[in-house]
Prior knowledge:
Chain A is of the alpha+beta class. Chain A folds into 3 domains: 21-92, ATP-grasp fold, A domain (Dna Ligase, domain 1, 2-Layer Sandwich); 98-222, D-amino Acid Aminotransferase, Chain A, domain 1 (2-Layer Sandwich); 231-375, Rossmann fold (3-Layer(aba) Sandwich). Chain A has 13 helices and 17 strands. The radius of gyration of chain A is 25 Å and the shape is elongated.
Amino acid sequence: MKIHEYQAKELFRADGVPVPPGEVARTADEVYNIARRYGKPVVVKSQVLVGGRGKAGGVKLAKDADEARKHAETILGMDIKGLTVDKVLITQAVKIDTEIYLGVIMDRASQRPVIMASAAGGVEIEEVARENPDAIQRLTVDPLHGLLPFQSRVLASKLHDDFKVIRQIATIIEKLYRTFVRVDASLAEINPLVVTPEGKVLAIDAKINIDDNALYRQPEIESLRDLSAEDPGEVAAREMGLSFVRLKGNVGNIVNGAGLAMATMDLIKTYGGEPANFLDIGGSSNPEKVITAIDIILGDPSVKSIFINIFGGITRCDDVARGLVTAFEKLDIKLPIVVRLTGTNEAEAKEILAKMDLPTADTMDGGVKKAIELAS
Amino acid sequence: MKIHEYQAKELFRADGVPVPPGEVARTADEVYNIARRYGKPVVVKSQVLVGGRGKAGGVKLAKDADEARKHAETILGMDIKGLTVDKVLITQAVKIDTEIYLGVIMDRASQRPVIMASAAGGVEIEEVARENPDAIQRLTVDPLHGLLPFQSRVLASKLHDDFKVIRQIATIIEKLYRTFVRVDASLAEINPLVVTPEGKVLAIDAKINIDDNALYRQPEIESLRDLSAEDPGEVAAREMGLSFVRLKGNVGNIVNGAGLAMATMDLIKTYGGEPANFLDIGGSSNPEKVITAIDIILGDPSVKSIFINIFGGITRCDDVARGLVTAFEKLDIKLPIVVRLTGTNEAEAKEILAKMDLPTADTMDGGVKKAIELAS
Amino acid sequence: MSAFIDKNTRLVVQGITGRDGSFHAKQMMEYGTDLVAGVTPGKGGQKFEGKVPVFDSVHEAVIETAANTSVIYVRAAFAADAICEAADAGVDVIVCITEGVPVIDMAKALPFVREKGCRLIGPNCPGIIAPRDTVKVGILPATIVGPGAVGVVSRSGTLTYEVVFQLTSNGYGQSTCIGIGGDPLIGTNFIDTLEAFESDEDTKAVVLIGEIGGTDEQEAADYIKAKMSKPVVAFIAGQTAPEGKRMGHAGAIVSGAAGTAQEKIEAFEKAKVPVARIPSEITKLLGEAAPGLKV
Amino acid sequence: MSAFIDKNTRLVVQGITGRDGSFHAKQMMEYGTDLVAGVTPGKGGQKFEGKVPVFDSVHEAVIETAANTSVIYVRAAFAADAICEAADAGVDVIVCITEGVPVIDMAKALPFVREKGCRLIGPNCPGIIAPRDTVKVGILPATIVGPGAVGVVSRSGTLTYEVVFQLTSNGYGQSTCIGIGGDPLIGTNFIDTLEAFESDEDTKAVVLIGEIGGTDEQEAADYIKAKMSKPVVAFIAGQTAPEGKRMGHAGAIVSGAAGTAQEKIEAFEKAKVPVARIPSEITKLLGEAAPGLKV
């Protein structure tokens, strides 16, 4: 789960990471009032759940409240990578001497949290990794020992020359790691962490992704979810326990299992079609899931056909068939739906579906080809 | 550092260990009022920092407030192993079906916390260990992993037959360990943990010893220290950074270093004397420490002579000598003091002391013999 | 012979009285697995299906029944603890089916398992099936497999079924099919499995089914090139997956330009491992890479 | 030769700019120790006594000076971290002088040190001195020692000085004198040290100075009986200590009937190790147990 910059900053602040004062606003008037109250230069920052906001023009420095209002008028309502900006963060501007990158990820290779740091902050870490990999320091943390004080200090000493600054950075590294563990993050990042000309160290941007698997024990973090910033189809899918990702094509598909769903998407593309989505109904046999899945896909007007690909292992094909029957009763389905059901209770399923006169297929290749044909 | 039962119960309660309601009182009237308010049978328990309170008659069951007052009158002011009872804990009496022992210690051999548990609770664990060692379950905890939930459950299942009770005990084991770590305990013990006839599990006694070395980071625990329950000499010594233990003899001694101080005590005994104390002035060269040390020993009227045994390594003998000179100026010293100073700056020290005309010795054997002679 | 499980497998099911646990326990028994015990705390003393003893702890189960393998169907919140319990109780192999285990829990449980010298498969995996020994530990459907010489290893569930079904339908039986799981932190990776297949005399060729996310396939490609004598055919799912979106599996995500299907396909091609573009191409490539394996 | 330190010891002093650290760094240099570096975070770039470079971290010190041994004089709150830092930086031997380290900190630091394969002496110890090599690491006063064939190991500080002084005065020089520390959790125990003495060819006999608390002496007695060929003479302090009172050292406490001097003396007597009743008896027993060692 992604959260907004202003929310990530609150989580960091709670653990003691120094963050410049800031407030969220949804209108240009609010922005003006906040900036006037601050009486200092401010930065107006779009709050959308994608990277590259700066490059897209979604982050602007304003020398006074009037300029802040002007920027807010441009930024609010702006489209950034398909997302509409409906709120901005106004933060007091900070003089910058140097910019540092600090991040913690859960590293798959070492199976441990890894702290990444670079004195070349302010740009995307992937870019640094590509162009100057030696500029990135990596510290693998043993989650049993936790981050030891000397490790933070030694890492910090590679990021700056002034020991007063190093001490501050070391403390911030400890707090960053504490937040990472406390909120069950999969990523916690400060980029840039800035050193002011006076030698103060401040986090002026913040990013935290949460491990979805841990949300059950993080109700406060879960409540930070900004449903308005998400695709309504993804929200509806999640509520029903489905996994859904919208794509740009016209061939919808409903599959049980993530690997098979990806392979089905890929196969649509291979046979010259364009997949409209990824949709995994999971391993259980709940007919309601099929109904929700169809409903979500029907919500996308560009979808022209749907391929249902079920390999019954735990999922029983007859349950899926029954879900289809109910879905056809409840929903106004005008699109062609191609069905391929194989595995557990396949015969029963075919019997149920026989009455419905749906196009069927025995193999996923056959089903994909038929769905593409029907979409064009 | 030792704390009282009622304080240990508060610490346990804060982590969620179920403890029956109780209040502390200093007078029989207070006891009466508390017991009346409870309106149930209560237990009146002396609060002194030694074990064996029950055997000494310091714990009594009262069926009503009048009886509670009667017991309080007996117990308050009572002497238990040299300590005067000045407060009691009144707790609601609990019906007991079975009694369990639960304790966590820092185990020297495994260098890890060890949880000890026994279905034979209610008696001293040393007694169980002696008579029926197999009745004690031991669980060594890896401090890096912490106590894992299954470990508590498996341990609990060896203490009772009813799974509803086992579940409660498992939770209490987890909480006991949490308290142990949270307060930097060297020992945390519930004895007995009782199971009521209704299957409720409750801690009806509690004991926690704190690691003295960790008190610097446990100000709240440090504030639980009951100075009135301690030997004033030990309090004064601790405030000055000395380590002092009062014994029953008449030959006082002041030594630098714990091992040498113990060996000096032992030597006094070997040569037919009785050591009056253990006193380690530590490794630093602060003359104030010598003054405090002499002052503390002079506070004990049974002391008849003092032996000062200093082996100068880090401690400089001339500093000790100067402390002695100042002590003789400030304090009214009428007792014979035998001095043995050897090691760093021995010559300078001897020069300083020459003017004072004190009995001296070259070896600890000689010094001890002279001090014993002067004490008789 | 097969990898990780065989005729000597004595299985304990953790969570045997739950919905999934009881269903699959029965399926495993019916297939031929030697199910010796079940564990559900508080249900000790019961009998599963009238004959398999249920215990309160894995420790008891191991002591009483000499179970050497465990399969876990408990809820995600308790799965990491269940893994540690099995490791502590002394089983050799642990298969964790449970999906949705928090990643930091696994980061702490994995060193515990390794300290105890256990083999963990999963979590979030369909488990293992060994058709030659008719033993299965997990949820892989017995109906789609057949005994043979192909080792199958995969990060997914139903895609594995699809591929195994096609293999069996086309005359390629399997020595062992292993789902290693779709999570970012798992106990057994592709290399561990390839090592097992390389040393298993009944395995003559391997089908490896990877997907987007991480670098496990790339490392497997290096390993195959350097160490494997047996032919391997690969397939990678998620070629059309967008960046930054979790595709069902917690581990199936392209981060920036890292972990793409393209990168993995190139790694295999560099290692001279044929890569099927679509699942139905796998049997064809297998026929070319390992002729004469068809039953 | 001597145990744990010798002519090849290249020492880094952690906390070299502090009061104790600077005093003893100078003493060690004067005695002959090869002091190659100091560490105080934030003081990197300074020179100690005009010649020894000071670094911000042990890592830098090890990289720049090839230090292989560290001695720690930092405050108790930072001592466990300093130990881990030295272990992580790759030194072979760490001597922690600091007193008052919380016991749970040591319970966590000890596995870290062991994972790194380091030898830790202490904490709360006077360190090591090797008179034959004129090397010392710690605070043992150089004035009282002399080169010879006796290995001395002790849980205390000044009592060791007293005993070593008597040994030297009576013609018994030492190969190595080691204070292992007075805390309940320490890196090196009596057995580790006895092993080192047994295999050190310059050590011909051992004086062991124990005290109340724990069972380290009892285990040492068993070890001596089972494994040692060289004569050992023991002394135990605290025969008159009362139960339940900490006698200065955090580890010197009799709990119930456990850890008494009597119990330890009996263990040694059972192992045929002569036990001196008073310190001045040690040289006499040594003369009987190992005749001909006097210089």
